[in-house]
Amino acid sequence: MDTKTREWAANFAQFIVDSPSCYHAAASVAKRLDAAGFRRQEESETWDATPGGHYIVRDGAVLAYWIPQGATPKTPFRVVGVHTDSPGLKLKPHPDATTPEGFKHLGVEVYGGPLFNSWLDRDLELAGRVTTRDGRVLLARTGAIMRVPQLAIHLDRTVNNEGLKLSAQKHLHPIWGINSEGDFLSFLADKLGLDNASEIVGYDLITVDAQAPNFLGAQGELMAGGRMDNLVGTYAGLVAMEELVANGGPTDGAICVLAAFDHEEVGSSTCAGAAGPILEDVLRRTHDALGGTEETFRAVISLSNCMSSDVGHSVHPNYSERHDPDNRPVLGGGPMLKVNAQQRYTTDALGESIWEKALVDAGLKGQVFVSNNDMPCGSTIGPITATRLGLLTFDVGIAILSMHSARELCHVQDLLDLSAVMGTYWHGAAYNGKH
Ligand SMILES: [Zn+2]
């Protein structure tokens, strides 16, 4: 592995550490965009569509857009869509409970589709945002404070052969003390420098693995860590956007957009999710500020497109029969196109031609994911974005193992390659000539 790859991967690992929740991820992206000269657009203010980089943050979503010199109501959009949220356990209201033996439990509910077993026996922190009585919104993280302990094998003799069955209500309580003083919100208030728990009026807090990513394999080419789904796409898009801007933007004058949505893991139907208006708000308000109308907006959408990037499945070496026999994507095999006849992924022949051109321009070879027909396929923001806006969309990503585990596994070369192909996508036209 060369120095650039190693450095890139180390920076991504730090990005994961700095982004334990979707709100932290949006803040991490915003901080980098500020450093790259992007201007923050408040949605309550008049829209600024002057040339250069801009961004908005809405809840856990962050959308960045680069407007070239000479943009007009005829300038199309080229969108890379990703998401900032990951599956986990969300803190319930009135979270404190104590067992008869004195264990301090926290009440949690399931966010998205985590692999429950992967959350056992890990040192966990809670991270997210808190609202205060004096009207502030604070980012919050506790550091490692708790754990969901697994039942010892002596008390569950059949677990290895018959499988682990976990009730979401009964078996996922994290413990964070025994016979000790204090409630969780008082602890959190103290962490945040607030006088007492009554200053906290609301919170969105989710569990996260407190362990930093690790590099495995002889060359450190395999990366293990939390929230790769989909900080992989978020970080790859961020770096591609930074490089795009450093190089002066695309020569053919498209408006380049990085849309990092929230709430993908719970279906996207929220004000910061892909099924809500957030992307349309950015596209339409930018278009309007450039002098466009409803009519020209629809015309420009017909010339625009979207690369929806999320992680996909590598062939699992221990379960290789679960995958399609002829399409065998693997870790390190390069960026991945995702295809599904039921349109759980949006990719079609037109999208494929845009993807192929971007790959060729980046000097890369890709791979393709399609499900084994006996295994139902997951989905992502691609179909939602296409349906919401009528935007030609195609689904891509990188191959990972252990998707929706508290710690997933990817190949660092794929990260760089995905970022490179996002860059060439923003830079260039496609084989079909239309886009
Ligand atoms: Zn995802």
Secondary structure blueprint with pairings:
Blueprint: H1 3-18, H2 22-35, E1 39-40, E2 52-58, E3 61-67, E4 77-83, E5 88-98, E6 103-111, E7 124-132, E8 137-141, H3 159-162, E9 175-178, H4 184-191, E10 200-209, E11 214-216, E12 222-225, H5 228-246, E13 255-261, H6 278-289, H7 294-301, E14 305-309, E15 312-313, E16 336-339, H8 349-361, E17 367-370, H9 381-389, E18 392-397, E19 399-400, E20 408-411, H10 412-427
Parallel strand pairs: 1-2, 4-13, 4-14, 14-18, 15-19, 16-17
Antiparallel strand pairs: 2-3, 3-13, 5-6, 6-9, 7-8, 7-10, 11-12, 12-20, 16-18
Descriptive overview:
With about 425 residues, the protein is of the alpha/beta class. The chain folds into two domains: about 5-85 and about 225-425, Aminopeptidase; about 90-210, Aminopeptidase i, Domain 2 (Roll). Helix content is about 25%, strand content about 25%. The protein contains ten helices and 20 strands. The chain has helices at about 5-20, 20-35, 160, 185-190, 230-245, 280-290, 295-300, 350-360, 380-390, 410-425; strands spanning about 40, 50-60, 60-65, 75-85, 90-100, 105-110, 125-130, 135-140, 175-180, 200-210, 215, 220-225, 255-260, 305-310, 310-315, 335-340, 365-370, 390-395, 400, 410. The strands form five sheets. Strands 1-2-3-13-4-14-18-16-17 form a nine-stranded mixed sheet, with helices on both faces. A three-stranded antiparallel sheet has the order 5-6-9, with no helix packed on it. Strands 8-7-10 form a three-stranded antiparallel sheet. Strand 5 (about 90-100) and strand 6 form a beta hairpin. Zinc ion binds near residues 83 and 380.
